[in-house]
Design brief:
By secondary structure, the protein is of the alpha+beta class. It contains twelve helices and five strands.
């Protein structure tokens, strides 16, 4: 075994710990800034890959010169998120090196606009037990949209990692595809902003259509602090459309139920095996509130529910009270 192999095996656990910690920190930073991500993934070079790169790049001091022994990739949904994540990384880490791959391409070259950062931990981080001993280690952070990630994955599958690797007769088609992906990223940003603008300005009245955005606006009007997942919206909407039919009708149902919802929720939560239940806790999600409203106001919906005890009895009691 060479000295380099031995040194790498000794230091690799530190890089693994660095990758885990930076991945967890980035997940937390994204959540704190309300940035949704498709994925945050870490990796540390395998010994074989490390040694191959040492030979390929002719490093004299590879453990000092190599920037990507450890890496974390953030895959976000929107182009506009790149700027927000850029700000987070520059605030939270010491950035040693930054590059934007799209800025390195000529006008006639295809590519994807992935942002690459080589960072070190800030000194104050190193005081925490899980960060001790990680000073002076570098880690690469890649940030790209999900469409950029798709482009990178497919072009890599085609073995076209570099522009010069591509047969001339394929370059025009790949350039066009690259431009389409860039345009799609921009269009998704536009649609997202249109959605936000719609939700901010939609007027709820008798003529309002029942769609995902108007439903969210209505629910947030009466239940602003309830959590909801994107996956819940579609399934709840199907039920609201079938058993209520319109935004105006569902709002009437909400108003009818408002006087008893808090009391009903607290009673239900006390039966939900929460020995330490606090009346300040919020047990229902936004989807749960919507379904409870249908339970209370729609005989047809309630007839098909088949809830177990004690929830059936609790709901039946409150159905009779309104």
């Amino acid at each position: 075994m060479s000295e380099l192999e031995r040194n790498y095996r000794e230091i690799k656990p530190k890089y693994q710990r660095l990758a885990i910690n930076v991945e967890q920190a980035l997940v937390q930073f994204l959540a704190e800034n309300q940035i949704s991500s498709f994925d945050v993934e870490k990796r540390v070079k395998e010994e074989k890959s490390f040694l191959e790169k040492v030979v390929r790049k002719s490093y004299e001091a590879p453990l000092d010169e190599m920037d990507d022994i450890a890496g974390v990739r953030v895959i976000c949904y929107y182009n506009e998120d790149l700027e927000a994540i850029d700000k987070i990384i520059k605030e939270q880490f010491n950035v040693v090196l930054y590059s934007n791959k799209s800025q390195e391409l000529d006008d006639d070259q295809f590519g994807y606009a992935s942002n690459h950062y080589v960072v070190k931990l800030k000194p104050e981080w190193l005081q925490a037990p899980n960060y001790r001993g990680l000073n002076d280690l570098k880690i690469e952070i890649q940030v790209r949209t999900i469409l950029m990630h798709a482009w990178a994955a497919i072009s890599h599958k085609l073995l076209y990692k570099k522009h010069d690797d591509v047969p001339k007769e394929f370059k025009i088609k790949l350039n066009r595809l690259s431009a389409l992906i860039e345009l799609a990223d921009e269009q998704f940003d536009d649609i997202k902003n249109m959605k936000v603008d719609y939700q901010n300005h939609v007027m709820l009245d008798e003529n309002s259509s029942l769609n995902a955005d108007s439903f969210l606006v209505l629910m947030r009007k009466y239940f602003p602090n309830r959590s909801i997942s994107d996956d819940d919206i579609s399934s709840v909407l199907v039920e609201v459309r079938e058993y209520s039919g319109s935004i105006a009708d569902f709002e009437k149902r909400i108003k009818k139920c408002m006087p008893i919802l808090e009391e009903m929720e607290q009673e239900e939560m006390r039966h939900y095996l929460f020995d330490d239940y606090d009346d300040e806790d919020s047990g229902w999600s936004m989807a749960g509130v919507a379904r409870t409203i249908l339970d209370l106001t729609s005989d047809n919906y309630w007839a098909k529910r088949g809830l177990s005890e004690p929830y059936w009895s609790i709901t039946e009691h409150y159905r009779n009270s309104i």
